[in-house]
Write a structure and sequence with these properties.
Chain lengths: 156, 783
């Protein structure tokens, strides 16, 4: 077992993990931050995307020990109380979610797209950048719309 | 008319918790003392189990128990069942081999359940599962649908000679043959409806808890129909008596059919938690989902159409071999029979239809309903066949459809295949779709594309489907073991807010919003004061759940009926309070008024009076809480025309969907925003089938596509923005005037896409999934 110390959603946390423990397992099982989901075993679906030191990471592909000393943000860390982050609000306003399972990963990936491409996003860029996130419900059109609207709102 | 009532695109109530990461899916739930289950699964498609040595696993760190089929049988846990009888051509019911939840001496597909290891941690359970030694004697496997019933194939089940589950002829063969013999032209097509893995994004999961004090089992699980699960688990699997079993479907991350069924894992978790007297949790990983969720489709079909010289359809015949997998899943038999052949009329006035379906067993995962269930298969073959007819008759594909449409004044329309369509105006949808898609401008666009080296094609799909299942009497006549009514309870609390209990289950469809809109509209209660509750057998009365696009068309009507009862009861209470005759009381927009006066009482005040009945009408019960059940009079028949435009790169075979228009008839829309989202999702599901998705077993029955690295799911860049519009009609059988919308896209899209590709490259047919390789090869042979 190894001891890890990291910041999660602005709080310092520590934990004992096996070398094989994945970051997503640590977040879900030890910290009980169950907003981050596991939808596949092969880093394909993106339901587990979190921010590690400001970059999007599939938390099923990162060992918990690798997050030692890092600053992690999960879906639970975006809103101010019940006031949604502009990207979350854009998903609600544009019906960018149905069953909600892929949604945390989609929102986090949306933030990463904004970080890398700015606030004025064209649909093709968003569609291409979402290649690592799978949604079975929405057909993506409203997710693309939501991320574009969220990006604009973040620039306001 | 309420601001947030019927017809308003209200933002969804459920979104806040999902966006905050506060959704509560089964795997998110943790209880004190919980253990973890991992299944030992067969690596062989077909094998005899000669022995299981679990000693090393049982002695491994943290292991609580290792359980096998022997333990299951010793405890009297019954096999999994199939709930719909199809009568085979020999007059006997379909063959139904035993389907044990843990193998009894033999495994029949890769992923079949052999044992379960229960340990203190998930890692310990996984480690110990590796230590279970199973001695297999492999047998030859049957994996291919087309020749599963051929002579000399390996027998899978003793009870099913030649691996045939049923042979099901339907229709008047002699009359049909006669029409074919005298036809001006016979068009035909042979096609495969590719096997799909349903793939809701949340994998299946279950958490079982046993209370030895009350002898009650609580099973949180990924379910679309908690009461159906409880009923089957209690009545057929002897898990626990129905009143000692609570099934909860909390937030469920998509279903699309895959979470209707009673599976081995959930049953074993329920059984094991009592056996080890500890909570037991199981969550599938994605590979387990690929191996053991019920799959969809998998048909091999030949279809023919007889035409007269005016291109009118005279008769149609269909021969299908349908793969049901190794065992029968819960509703497996119904899908390639009643949900399939009863749709062969489509939108057309074809007078004679004859079909034969041969359902076969193979050494593959069970096949059952998956978004559309039978109707996508029917629509695909019919709409592909109609395009072949158009080509054979040298007619425009829109024109041959128009010539054969059931006219709008013919509704309700009795088809030759059981169904009586409720309402429709197929030409209106076609016209609107053609206008929106700028059909007349297609030739110019194709010419422009040709200059860029691209082949541009356009494809139609004019579909009808049967959903809103279903009238119970019809279900009974067809051999179904259940009624398909729905229940509702609408309860005012003394403070005037409302709780709506529905027997349906929402796993993405937005019922918490849509149903609140219905109640808001009817009772005039503010939208924010209405809460919809579903998914827990301890909270809601018996209900049949969500599948077959039935929740609004059946469950919504039950809610409306409960509201009617409340309004009627409220009239008595209001009349007494306002000292008026009941006949003089009117109810509008949430207020009871005395006709011709300015006296009024809000329904919330009436509710308060009902709970504090100090001055109260004689003979009226206290309380303001009503139940209703609704058994539909007919199925619901959404229909529409989808037009897809593609560009094919002949050098690579790559297909780009460049334009897509859908004009659907869903009757009245309650929340247009949600409906449009359902259509988008359905179309992309259908595009996935048409271009990308194909579940593949090799000749030894090994599952080759067992992860998202091998099975291509549609992603954001596989589709353009869609153009969505409606051509509604008013279905006379539905009191709310609504039709289902959840499956239509997945039904309508595949033939629209393939028709467009065939049109682009000038081929008669291209098999799904139309991958670049498939399309490139088709381009080569079309040249």
């Amino acid at each position: 077992m190894s001891t890890i110390n990291l910041a999660v959603n602005g709080q310092s946390v520590s934990g004992e993990v096996e070398p094989r423990t994945l970051l997503v397992e640590f977040l879900r099982e030890q910290l009980r931050l169950t907003g981050t989901h596991v939808g596949c075993d092969t880093s394909q679906c993106g339901a587990c995307v979190v921010m590690v030191d400001g970059k999007s990471v599939k938390s099923c592909t990162m060992l918990a020990v690798m997050a030692d000393g890092c600053d992690v943000t999960t879906i639970e860390g975006l809103a101010e109380g019940t006031e949604l982050h502009p990207m979350q609000q854009a998903f609600m306003d544009n019906h960018g979610l149905q069953c909600g399972f892929c949604t945390p990963g989609m929102v986090m990936s949306g933030l990463d797209i904004v970080n890398r491409h700015g606030n004025e996003l064209d649909a093709d860029t968003v569609r291409r950048e979402l290649n690592g996130n799978i949604c079975r419900c929405t057909g993506y059109q409203n997710i693309v719309k939501a991320i574009r609207a969220g990006a604009r709102a973040m620039g306001d | 008319m309420q601001e947030n009532g019927i017809g308003a695109s209200v933002r969804r109530k459920e979104d806040q918790r999902f966006l905050l990461g506060k959704g509560r899916y089964t795997d998110d739930i943790n209880v004190a003392g919980q253990t973890y289950a991992v299944f030992v699964r067969s690596p062989h498609a077909h094998a005899v189990i000669e022995g299981i040595d679990a000693r090393a696993a049982a002695a491994a760190p943290g292991v609580v128990a290792v359980l096998t089929g022997e333990d299951l049988a010793a405890d009297g846990i019954g096999p999994l069942i199939c709930g719909v009888v199809v009568t085979s051509d020999d007059g006997e019911p379909h063959r139904a081999p035993a389907h044990p939840a843990l193998a009894q001496g033999k495994v029949n597909y890769v992923g079949d359940h052999v044992a379960v290891v229960i340990a203190e941690t998930l890692a310990q359970a996984r480690d110990a599962a590796e230590l279970v030694e199973v001695n297999y004697r492999p047998l030859p496997a049957v994996a291919s649908t087309a020749d599963a019933a051929s002579d000399g194939r390996q027998q899978i089940h003793q009870e099913a000679p030649n691996n045939i589950c049923f042979n099901w002829p339907f229709g008047d063969k002699a009359a049909n043959d006669e029409a074919f013999d005298s036809a001006h032209k016979v068009s035909s097509i042979e096609l495969v409806n590719n096997r799909m893995v349903t793939n809701p994004m949340e994998p299946r999961a279950a958490l079982g808890e046993y209370n030895s004090g009350t002898e009650e089992i609580t099973l949180h699980m990924t379910t679309q129909n908690p009461h159906v699960h409880r009923l089957v688990l209690a009545a057929f699997n002897q898990l626990a008596p129905e009143h000692k079993l609570r099934v909860v479907g909390p937030d469920v991350g998509g279903g699309f059919g895959a979470k209707i069924f009673v599976y081995a894992e959930e049953l074993v978790v329920g059984w094991a938690c009592r056996k080890v007297n500890r909570p037991v949790k199981w969550t599938a990983d994605r590979t387990e989902a690929f191996m053991s969720d019920a799959h969809g489709r998998d048909h091999v079909t030949k279809a023919e159409m007889a035409l007269d010289e005016n291109s009118k359809f005279l008769a149609m015949r269909v021969h299908t071999t349908a793969n049901l997998g190794a065992y029968l899943s819960t509703f497996a038999t119904m899908v390639p029979s009643y949900l399939y052949a009863f749709l062969f009329a489509g939108q057309y006035a074809t007078p004679l239809i004859y079909s034969e379906v041969k359902a076969v067993f193979t050494n593959t995962a069970p096949v059952d309903a998956s978004r559309g269930a039978g109707r996508p298969e029917a629509t695909y073959l019919l709409e592909r066949l109609v395009d072949v007819c158009a080509a054979d008759m040298e007619l425009d594909p829109a024109e041959i459809r128009r010539r054969n449409f059931i006219p709008k004044d013919a509704f309700p329309y009795q088809t030759p295949v059981v169904q009586c369509y409720d309402s429709g105006d197929y030409e209106a949808a076609l016209d609107k779709a053609m206008e929106l898609a700028d059909y007349s401008g297609f030739e110019a666009r194709a010419a422009e594309a040709k200059n860029r080296g691209k082949l541009r094609g356009i494809g139609f799909s004019s579909y009808v489907e049967a959903c809103g299942i279903a009238p119970s009497a019809a279900v009974g006549q067809l051999g179904g073991g259940v009624g398909l009514w729905e229940s509702a309870q609408v309860r005012f609390n003394p403070t005037g807010n409302v709780q709506v209990f529905t027997g349906t289950h929402s796993h993405g469809q937005g019922h918490e919003t849509t149903f609140a809109q219905l109640v808001c509209d009817q009772l005039g209660v503010p939208f924010e004061n209405i809460e919809v509750i579903h998914g827990d057998t301890a909270k809601t009365q018996f209900g049949m759940g969500t599948y077959g696009s039935r929740s609004l068309a059946v469950g919504g009507v039950a809610i409306a009926k409960a509201c009617d009862k409340l309004i009627a009861k409220g009239k008595k209470i209001a009349a007494h309070a306002m000292e008026a005759a009941e006949g003089d009381i009117e109810f509008t927009d949430g207020n009871y008024t005395v006709a011709g006066t300015d006296k009024a009482m809000n329904i919330a005040e009436v509710a308060f009076n009902a709970y504090v009945p100090h001055s109260y009408p004689e003979g009226v019960e206290p309380g303001f809480d009503e139940n209703a059940f609704f058994d539909p009079m007919n199925f619901s028949f959404p229909a529409g025309t989808h037009i897809c435009e593609v560009e094919v790169d002949p050098a690579t075979g790559e297909v780009e969907i460049v334009d897509y228009t859908a004009v659907d008839d869903f009757g009245k829309l309650v929340n247009p925003m949600i409906v449009e989202g359902q259509v988008h999702g359905g179309i992309v599901h259908g595009i996935g089938q048409a271009l990308l998705e194909g579940c593949h077993y090799d000749e030894n029955g090994q599952l080759v596509t067992a992860s998202y690295m091998d099975y291509a799911m549609p992603r954001a860049d596989n589709a353009p923005d869609f153009r969505i519009d409606y051509a509604p009609t008013d279905p006379p059988h539905n009191p709310l005037g609504v039709k289902g919308c959840g499956e239509a896209g997945a039904i309508g899209a595949p033939p629209a896409v393939i028709n467009a590709i065939a049109n682009a490259i000038g081929a008669k047919h291209v098999e799904m999934p139309a991958t670049p390789e498939t399309v490139w090869r088709a381009c080569q042979s079309a040249v």
